[in-house]
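User: What would this chain look like folded?
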Amino acid sequence: MATSTVSPTPVAQGWLNYRTIWRWHFYAGLFCIPFVIWLSITGSIFLFKPQIERLLDRPYDHLNITGPHATADAQVQAALAAVPGSSLHFYELPTAPDNAVRVIVGKGRAEYRVYVQPQTLQILHVVSEDDRPMKIVQRLHGELMMGDRGSMLVELAASWAIVMVVTGLYLWWPRQATRLAGILYIRMRQGQRIFWRDLHAVTGIWISAFALFLLFTGLPWAKSWGGYLKKVRTIAAHAPVQQDWTTGRSSELAAREAMNMPGMDMSNMSADEHAAHMGHMAEGKSLLDPAVAFEPLDRLVATIAPLGLAYPVLLSPPKKPGGAWTAKSDAQNRRLRTTLTLNPTTAKVTNRQNFSQRGLIDRISGTGIAAHEGQLFGLANQLLGLFTAIGLVLISVSAVVLWWRRRATGLLGAPLPTRKPRFSWTLALLAVVFGVYLPMLGGSLLLVLVTERLVLRRIPPASRWLGLSPA
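Assistant: Here's the prediction, encoded as structure tokens.
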């Protein structure tokens, strides 16, 4: 939603039709702005997840410990007893000897975080992972608390937001400007019309690159685009691909369920086998002998603790009796992540995979995700993300003000098309490229074009209101 200060007549003869770009910028903004504001607010909160979670967990740290700690095995057993019928998902290594032990257990599709007093085994707190405040913010941000459908809706909005930013850059890019006023800084003394226009344009110039980065790096989590990427990678590798992130709510829940049934490959399971193992899970049964399942934990903790892996460090049990345990750093700065495989008998590390040893796409995506979450380079990363989010809100609010002030009564206010629009191969090629890279955008674009051509243009009142009639 931009109001141009440059006459469209000479520009329209160039390699892209200026008025067409303006119209698509308007329509993209009309759809995206509510989502952009929502994602900016929730994303700004999530940027400070480490600080917020440390504050929320303060009651369970710096406890009064007066004697030796119980064994890690006993701590896990206490956590499992606190959630009857559950199985161990992760044992989190404490960051200090006087902190409560965090044990993550699973039951069905639910995961619970159990805070255990390390000496007395008293259960200090039990909370569903889905009820933790930052998990709620994450789901509000990524899926609108609507599961896979919400994830696809956010992906659709993000795809059109990319169109909005790119077209906005084209519209506002200085062509014959001799001054920096209205380009790099806002003119404050030339009336409200100029102020709001400059606020929209100047803010966009400053944050567009950062906004595009956030939009593109958020796509791997999305249900549709993340699955799309995984399929492309599987075809290219001629083998199944394991990614270090889930795609959509159903993917996350499936991963939780798989951890409840060690030793079983769910993808090749028959219907009867699936039902039988779901029954085992519902009854709290495990393929691991509970009497000896967690006995190696203390030896493994003694091996891992001195290695200095980035917090949080999670230990997970083997998928089959006698199998290897896994220890991993689950740091939000994914470049610090390390995964270890350990022999439960000898407590020796049998395999180590650092971030640098992962595939190129995993390293690119992991670095992008870490920056997206504000964890790649500390506080400066968080502040840069906050600056971008505030800029996106300013762009959105100023766009609404500009639209409201310029629209004619009784009309939507879209820029009118030219009477004889020129076909642009460049624009068509860009639409195809964006449509292939962003399938949700491509599908919705085709739907919009077909609906406009076959339906809306044939209804005069709708055509006039939407601005489909040429000037």
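Confidence is low (pLDDT under 50) at residues 1-14, 263-287. If you want, I can go into more detail on any region.
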